[in-house]
């Protein structure tokens, strides 16, 4: 007997006497995407990966260690194995390489906080995505829509904790491909809890800099900077980049996942402020998941743009759009360096005249 073909191998029957229909595998994958993300979330929240990091286990053994019934343990372990997170030999389950590196709490690149942030913070907006499409407004509820969505009370602190691995891995790739040897001091505008600048400083020993963010976020950044042992190289400035001038004294300004939160007019305002703070020859670095100039993808940038649709008034822009705004703001020389990371696929770089 031949192995059961997967859905993608099957040719779906067409309507009676009609041509064969395309296989429905794409639709099944898309329609059940929530099942995949919530299997991952459930395994993280119940401690599957943390527990298996202490040693392989059968389903009943894991059920015992987690204090759950055998039935959900078996179902969850089977699903995690099918999704490539776990490996199973002779009925015993262990973490696969991705789970072992990213999903065990306490490991340096622990990704679980990001997954939980998506599940708890962004998911409510996503579940009403059609509303955002119809209304051209965020579908994600915000406690006080009249205030900046990043203000204290409008966004929970675990949003910034959740960005840690996402932003650190992005900064690590950025640091590997960008030549920052000529940069002494960098201003990370909207630098959040400091994860990006901390990683850039770890990778480039000559680098010093400043995280600028709303005052309540700077408190989170100071904790992270101190824990990383970088208080001597990274300072913080609590400010509103729409209302306050940006501090001078830096060779470069970084905007990492900032401009996708805002509309074109607001972005031109932010860029004008950045240029104002830089000396001639200073550099603006825009790090984002860039949408292709022909607006055909790629998937990660296109879906981040959907994420902006449901949660903000912004969207993910193209390198050409950023380049145009940078030129208008006073950077005649603009180029794009491409790379592949969770939070960016390139940096658009403008040099102030
Ligand atoms: C999507 S997060 C990006 C954080 C960080 N750059 C990174 O790559 O991880 C956007 C950041 O912009 C900050 N922000 C939003 N509005 C701001 C404002 N008006 N002034 C200063 N920072 C602001 C938020 O607090 C948040 O930390």
CATH class of the largest domain: Alpha Beta
Structural class: alpha/beta
Spatial strand arrangement across the major sheet: 5-4-3-6-7-9-8
If you consult CATH, what is the topology of the largest domain? Rossmann fold
Uncertain spans? 1-5
Helix content: 40-55%
N to C succession of SSEs: HHHHHEEHHHHEHEHEEHEHHEE
* Ligand names: S-adenosylmethionine
Q: Distance N terminus to C terminus?
A: 71 Å
Q: What is the tally of beta strands?
A: 9
**CATH architectural type of the largest domain:** 3-Layer(aba) Sandwich
Kindly provide the radius of gyration, computed on alpha-carbon positions and rounded to a whole number of angstroms: 23 Å
Mean pLDDT: 95
CATH superfamily of the largest domain: Vaccinia Virus protein VP39
Number of helices: 14
Strand content: 5-15%
- Largest β-sheet summary: 7 strands, mixed
Protein topology:
Layout: H1 25-31, H2 33-46, H3 48-52, H4 59-66, H5 70-82, E1 86-89, E2 92-95, H6 97-102, H7 112-126, H8 129-135, H9 158-177, E3 185-189, H10 195-203, E4 208-213, H11 215-227, E5 234-238, E6 252-256, H12 264-277, E7 283-288, H13 299-311, H14 319-329, E8 333-338, E9 346-351
Parallel strand pairs: 3-4, 3-6, 4-5, 6-7
Antiparallel strand pairs: 1-2, 7-9, 8-9
């Amino acid at each position: 007997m031949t192995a059961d073909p997967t859905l993608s191998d099957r040719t779906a029957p067409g309507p009676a006497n009609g041509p064969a229909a395309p296989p429905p595998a794409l639709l099944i994958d898309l329609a059940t995407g929530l099942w995949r993300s919530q299997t991952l979330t459930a395994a993280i929240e119940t401690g599957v990966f943390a527990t298996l990091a202490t040693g392989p286990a059968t389903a009943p053994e894991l059920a015992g260690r987690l204090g759950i019934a055998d039935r959900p343990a078996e179902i969850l372990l089977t699903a995690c194995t099918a999704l490539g997170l776990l490996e199973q030999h002779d009925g015993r389950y262990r973490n696969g390489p991705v789970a072992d590196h990213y999903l065990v709490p306490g490991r340096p690149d622990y990704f679980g906080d990001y997954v939980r942030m998506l599940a708890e913070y962004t998911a409510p907006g996503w579940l009403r995505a059609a509303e955002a499409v119809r209304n051209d407004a965020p579908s994600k509820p915000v406690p006080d829509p009249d205030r900046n969505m990043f203000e204290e009370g409008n966004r929970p602190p675990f949003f910034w904790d959740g960005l840690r691995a996402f932003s650190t891995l992005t900064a690590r790739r950025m640091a590997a491909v960008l030549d920052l040897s000529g940069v002494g001091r960098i201003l990370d505008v909207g630098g959040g809890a400091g994860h990006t600048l901390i990683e850039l400083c770890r990778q480039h020993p000559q680098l010093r800099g400043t995280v600028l963010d709303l005052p309540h976020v700077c408190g989170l950044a100071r904790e992270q900077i101190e824990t990383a042992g970088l208080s001597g190289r990274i300072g913080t400035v609590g400010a509103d980049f729409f209302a306050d001038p940006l501090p001078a004294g830096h060779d470069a300004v970084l905007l990492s996942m900032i401009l996708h939160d805002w509309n074109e007019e607001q972005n031109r305002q932010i860029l004008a402020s950045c240029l104002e703070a830089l000396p001639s020859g200073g550099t603006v670095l825009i790090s984002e998941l860039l949408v292709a100039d022909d607006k055909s993808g790629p998937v990660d940038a296109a879906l981040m743009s959907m994420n902006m649709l449901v949660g903000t008034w912004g969207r993910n822009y193209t390198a050409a759009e950023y380049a145009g705004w940078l030129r208008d703001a006073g950077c005649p020389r603009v180029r794009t360096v491409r790379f592949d990371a969770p939070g960016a696929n390139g940096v658009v770089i403008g040099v102030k005249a």
